[in-house]
């Protein structure tokens, strides 16, 4: 008896130590809205997406500069070698006087007037790419939120598990005290006491594991959310009580057709391919631009006198690339094939959306039904445990029946907790599939 008493005290010290360690950590209540806010602000993946979006924005601004004139300024200076003039065939060479240095300063401006729509469609392409980058960021943000929610609901389930296990341990302690009293009175055998102590040990081990898992998941979320790693996150317990009304599956599919970032990206890619056709067609058209320039130079090119001369000019330039008539033909066919390919990808995405939304819809309904069924199971398991416990205390059943009833009740409560968190998660999975997360 003394051995088992010392053994129980040792187990109590061992298994309550992690709980004390958790108690030393500062609790940090975290709502779902704050989870999403901190997650999107501190996610490295989203930071990379925002960088890509910023790069696409700069590329659009660069494309718009094609509408502006090209301006160049130049200056040239150099040594002029002595020229030789032959007055009669290659005989009688003379060396006229001329300056030794030349200077040339010029300013030129070229403004494109018409290039077959190439500039306009280049800008349009850059704009579409920026919009695709923005949609990619929105899609990544939804993925990050869903990933954070998975850990958040796992943490919620772990807290509920510790509550259930703590209550079960408390009842096991009371049961063990009753069994020891009954053993002293000779009502039960020593085997009942040993089995009760083993059951208590298993519950304490499970409680420690749950507490350790809480610390691990909390640290993971702390790092992702940019919080102090020592904080022990506590999820919002009112989340399960929030009621959500479901629309029809077809209504969610229509929402996904309008909001899902992946489908919108596919549509923009189709528009990009159509824009590439217009860019290829622009090669068949002529280019028109206006040029203006001013040049200040010395010496005079006609007489080589050491004097400055200033000249300016304005001109229209019209050009047409005849080689485009045979070189651009296959490029146009390639662009048309890309449009067909993008339309095909868009249709595939719509098919996949129907599958994903319907799957998420069914899984959420299944999760709701599981919560209802397990709620009834918990009540039944609780009643069964109460009956078996009373029968055991009256020596109408054996300890095995009582431990089995306790195990059934514990499993039913843990399954209900898991089902409740899964119901919340499947709802947000449905919102993610619809593009509403």
Annotation keywords:
single chain; 437 residues; Outer membrane efflux proteins (OEP); elongated; disordered N terminus
Task: Explain the overall architecture.
With about 425 residues, the chain is α+β, with helices and mostly antiparallel strands. The protein folds into two domains: about 1-65 and about 120-285 and about 330-435, Outer membrane efflux proteins (OEP) (Up-down Bundle); about 70-115 and about 285-325, Outer membrane efflux proteins (OEP), CATH 2.20.200. The protein has ten helices and eight strands. The chain has helices at about 1-25, 30-40, 45-65, 120-185, 190-225, 250-260, 260-280, 325, 330-395, 400-435, and strands spanning about 25-30, 70-80, 85-90, 90-95, 100-115, 230-235, 285-300, 310-320. The strands form three sheets. The chain has a four-stranded antiparallel β-sheet with strand order 2-5-7-8, with no helix packed on it. The protein has a two-stranded parallel ribbon with strand order 1-6. Strands 3-4 form a two-stranded antiparallel ribbon. A hairpin with a 2-residue loop joins β3 (about 85-90) and β4 (about 90-95). α4 (about 120-185) packs antiparallel against α10 (about 400-435). The longest helix has about 70 residues, at about 120-185. The radius of gyration is 40 Å and the shape is elongated. The model is unreliable at about 1-20 (pLDDT under 50).
């Amino acid at each position: 008896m003394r051995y088992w008493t010392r053994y129980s005290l040792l187990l109590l010290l061992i298994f309550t130590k992690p709980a004390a360690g958790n108690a030393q950590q500062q609790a940090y209540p975290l709502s779902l809205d704050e989870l999403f806010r901190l997650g999107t602000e501190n996610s490295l993946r989203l930071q990379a997406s925002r960088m890509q979006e910023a790069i696409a924005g700069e590329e659009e601004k660069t494309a718009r500069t094609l509408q502006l004139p090209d301006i160049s300024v130049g200056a040239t200076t150099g040594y002029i070698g002595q020229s030789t003039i032959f007055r009669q065939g290659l005989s009688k060479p003379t060396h006229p006087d001329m300056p030794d240095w030349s200077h040339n300063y010029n300013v030129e401006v070229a403004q494109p007037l018409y290039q077959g729509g190439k500039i306009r469609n280049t800008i349009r392409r850059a704009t579409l790419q920026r919009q695709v980058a923005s949609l990619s960021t929105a899609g990544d943000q939804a993925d990050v939120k869903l990933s954070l929610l998975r850990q958040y609901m796992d943490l919620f389930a772990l807290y509920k598990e510790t509550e259930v296990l703590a209550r079960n341990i408390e009842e096991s302690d009371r049961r063990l005290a009753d069994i020891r009293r009954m053993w002293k009175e000779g009502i039960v055998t020593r085997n009942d006491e040993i089995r009760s102590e083993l059951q208590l040990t298993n519950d304490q081990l499970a409680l420690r594991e749950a507490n350790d898992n809480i610390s691990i998941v909390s640290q993971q979320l702390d790092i992702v959310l940019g919080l102090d790693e020592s904080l022990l996150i506590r999820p919002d317990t009112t989340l399960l009580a929030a009621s959500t009304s479901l629309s029809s599956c077809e209504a969610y599919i229509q929402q996904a057709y309008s909001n899902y970032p992946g489908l919108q990206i596919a549509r923009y890619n189709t528009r990009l391919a159509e824009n590439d056709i217009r860019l290829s067609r622009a090669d068949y058209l002529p280019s028109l631009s206006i040029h203006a320039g001013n040049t200040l130079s010395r010496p005079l090119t006609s007489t080589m006198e050491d004097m400055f001369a200033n000249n300016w000019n304005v001109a229209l330039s019209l050009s047409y690339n005849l080689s485009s008539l045979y070189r651009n033909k296959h490029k146009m066919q390639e662009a048309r094939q890309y449009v067909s390919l993008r339309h095909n990808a868009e249709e595939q995405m719509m098919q996949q959306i129907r599958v994903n939304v319907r799957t998420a819809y069914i899984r959420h309904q299944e999760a709701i039904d599981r919560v209802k069924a397990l709620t009834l199971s918990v009540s039944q398991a609780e009643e069964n445990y109460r009956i078996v416990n009373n029968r055991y205390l009256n020596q109408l059943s054996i300890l095995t029946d009582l431990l089995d009833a306790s195990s059934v009740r514990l499993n039913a409560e843990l399954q209900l907790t898991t089902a409740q968190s899964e119901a919340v998660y499947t709802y947000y999975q449905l919102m993610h599939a619809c593009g509403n997360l």
